[in-house]
Structure formats: C-alpha cells, structure tokens
Amino acid sequence: MKSCRPFPSIILLCLLAGGFLPETQAQTLPVTVRGQVTDTARQLVLYPATVRNKKTNVRVFTDNGGYYRIPASQGDTILISFIGYVGQAFVVNNTAGEEVKNVRLALQERFLPRVEVSGKWNPYQLDSIARYEEYRPFLETRSRTLVDTEKRSQGGFGLTFSPFTRYSRKQKDLRKFKELYAKNEMQRYVDYRYSKPFVQRVTGLSGDSLIKFMYKYQPPYDMLREMNNETLIFWISERALQWRKDPNVTLKPED
Predict the structure, then answer these.
(1) The whole model's pTM is what?
(2) What's the CATH code, domain 27-105?
(3) How far is CA 141 from CA 134, 137, 174, in A?
(4) What is the DSSP letter of 143?
(5) What percentage of the chain reaches a pLDDT higher than 90?
(6) 167-193 pLDDT, tens per residue?
(7) What is the pLDDT at residue 38?
(8) Residue 54 has what DSSP assignment?
(9) What does the domain layout of the chain look like in residue ranges?
(10) Which long-range contacts link 93-96 to residues 24+ away (Cβ below 8 Å)?
(11) How far apart are CA 103 and CA 39, in angstroms?
(12) Does residue 253 contact residue 223 with C-beta atoms inside 8 Å?
C-alpha cells in the first residue's frame, strides 16, 4: 500500500496560515519613521535638518515646519544632524507601521579641542566640504528676488514683479538657512584657527581663565583670514599681557 504524502504547496500554506514565518523575514517589514526636529533650548524648528537611515543610506530633509518622514525597518539606525548642533541617533523599535520620534538637538559647544590630520586638507576644510555636500540641494537653489527675470512680461523688459514668491514662507526659510550656513562656516573657521589648545600654548592660561580670555578676545573672521600664524600669535600674546595686568581692560581687535 502506497503511503500518502502531502503536497509541498499544501505544507507551505499550512505554515503560512499557522504563522510559522522565519524571524528574519518578519523583521523586514517596512516602518515609516516620522517626527519633528527642534532646538533644545528655544524649541525652534530646524530646517533643513538631515535625517539619514544609516543602513540603507536613504536621506531626507525636514520641511520648513521641522517635520520629516523616512522609510526604515526594525533595528535600523536613524541619524539626525543640523549645522551648528550636536547630532543624534536612535534605533527603530517598531516591527511595522509607523513610529513617531521627535528629536531635540543641542547647540555645539564652543572651543572644542582641534584635531590635526596630515594630508592635502586640514580638518576645517574636510568638514566644510562634507557640510556643503550634505546641504548642496539647498545651497544651490536660487533664492527668488522681488523681480523675477526668468518670466518675461509684456512690457518688453523681461521682468516680472513677484512679491508672493519673494515673501513666501519657504523662500524666507531658505534665505534664513543660507545666512545661518554662512555664519556657521565663518564661526567654524574662527574656532579652527583660534582653538583652545592653540591659545593655551600661546598664553599659558588654563581652566576658567582660558575660557574667559577666549570669549573676551576673539579675532573677527575677516581679520583672521588675513593673519598668518605668526601674526596671530603676536595678536594673542599682546592681549594675554594686558589680561595679566588688568583683566577689566579690553583691547580693540585692531589694536
């Protein structure tokens, strides 16, 4: 008598109906992670903050309300960053559906130790290149002006008055971001040249005295761009001498 063998397809259907799915397959279900990125101290929305899935390398930006939405799976690491702020990361917990994660970023600390590397580019240049590549879609977007030269009017001058695009919230936020980006780049350059270890070696100050000195005396960006290291050392030394004589007296940057 022949033995009865169930068909493979019937076995598979039974396994599916009984929920006997491999654990790895169950963890690959899509999860939509969404939330808002804001400033810790003032609770300002951060636009455009970068939100990136470390595993898939999918990258999105927050909108002008600070909101984001990114595809992920359980166990994926999501990285959030914004210029001038300390980045954060979190791991996706949900196995499917949606996961809401609001993120609050803190401002970066000033006067961090400077890290030197050998090669063609210094640390400031490498960071600057990386930041530009990250925010290229926004930095290379043309900001609209009151007069839009791309639209031709019937008057023959090729100019169209467009206050609605000029003063739209998105355009305002874009211009504000570009201004913030430019200020951040200048401050990063100052912090790189006028670093805590460098000033400490020149002045011999340390601890709170060093921090107070650096906050009181900081060379302007334009001046620092024109200074070589020898001139900068002399500039710092003069102010350190005055600091030791009388910390309450302040020398002007050009003195």
Answers:
(1) 0.60
(2) 2.60.40.10
(3) 14, 6, 9
(4) P
(5) 44
(6) 577 788 888 888 888 998 999 899 889
(7) 93
(8) T
(9) 27-105, 121-183, 194-255
(10) 94/31, 95/26, 95/27, 95/29, 95/31, 96/29, 96/30, 96/31
(11) 9
(12) yes
